[in-house]
Design brief:
This protein is α+β, with helices and mostly antiparallel strands. 27% of the residues lie in helices and 30% in strands. It is globular.
Amino acid sequence: MIELGEKLNKDTRPDRKKLEILLSKQNENVAKTTNSTSIKNTETEKSSSSSNIIYSIKSVSTLNNTIIIDFNVDITKNDIKFFRLNQASVYKSIFDINGYFKDAIPTKLSIKGVDNIALGQFKPNVLRIVLSNSKNLEFSYSMSKRQIIIKINNIAPTIDKKEPVINKEVEKVVTTPTEKEEEPTNKEYIDSENSIRSISSENNKIIVKFNKNYFKNNVKFRTLKQNGNYENIFDITGKYKYIDPTKLEIDGIDKIITTANGNNSVRIRLINKSKSKVNYTLNKRELIISAETTSDAISQQNTPKRTINKIIVIDAGHGADDVGAVGPNKRYEKVVNLNVSKYLASILKQRGYTVYLTRNSDTFIKVMDRTILANEKKADLFISIHTNAVPKERANEVSGIETFFLSPARSERAKRVAALENKSDIREMSDSSKDVFLESLNRPRITASHKFAIDVQAGLLQAARTKYKDTNDSGVREGPFWVLVGAQMPSILVELGYISHKEESRRLYDKSYQQLLANGIANGVDSYFSKNP
């Protein structure tokens, strides 16, 4: 109401006052519930890790040159991981913290001297805090049973000299490595003496760098099953003096062990309870190892199990002979749509929602039949997943994520996108009849859809930019998408990116990025329900 009132130049001060009162009451209720639960379940909490509670992270805030994370459960040193990513002139310092924070999207952090601080639910049970800056930052952090305080050492406090209030019984203080130290960033140890230069994990891949050219006969790969586990084993010719401190991890793999295999060989073992597909590429001085994960892998993560009385229907656009838009190297829109929809369904189920898919295989469903399922299941939300495209002559110029809600189109851009997605729909209506029909739509539902679209767009951008900072925000738009017609609940159509764009289509076909986008949409769903219960 406030947002719409401001657009109409109305006096929204009474509504803002009401909102403050509602939020205050909500916070009081949450506090009462938390205290009651902690009293009843003290013994249970002592034996639980932060990944086994609904909202294990209570709050995230800043004070002077520190970031303060408070928890609803006891934590250990294993609940925080730190690494760096240096991209061109931007230094990124990343903290992955075990736990789920329901207010990740609306929370905005800032510290004077830091260019940008991004907060996002990287995985259902991992909160990621990314600090981006033009110069490298030096950190230390302290831990108590229910609090982590991250301090930026090379930025002086700007408000006052008062230190943040720290819980007693501090468990550990850790100083993160800086450029001045011999230890390289991102846990990557450089060996300039032997043939293997470095072994590290980055962007969900294991990267092995060499000081000389390597060939196929220098790397041996085999798989086996032993002790009930599946193992993918790499034996790499050469020595590496930093084997012991090297710690590797990638999504979908339970354990990665690096050891010396004789006097002149290094062994990397990827161990998993379930069978996984491991790929690798060798390019002269670099070996890249990756593991393909599926929606089943997501559902097996140790994420909170809860039940939410909300039903969501997810529609993977196009399917079968209707491939949708086609990008470079015959990348089909229908493939991206289905993969992201499956990942999204798994994440939402894991968070406690009831979820239905209009299709879970490469089949075609009539456009007008897609919302029938949502209505039959009495869904609370309807989400249609798509990817965008433009003609070849503009393919390298247009990219970005945008979210649409059903309404009479007011721009040529919205009409163009709608026309592309409406191709598979056949309706015996003239253009003027369609306009009249759209004008008669349920206005409260349009308003709710608009709010939902805003939350999902924010979640998508926040998730995508944790991996690709250059992701374009194409905004929230209204358009006449017939797949949304007939839905009796708030409904949106998401355009995940432009499959016609050379670089963006490559990203859209990457499974780790698809999972990231799905997580962003899920965060948008959480955000919407937190404000519209």
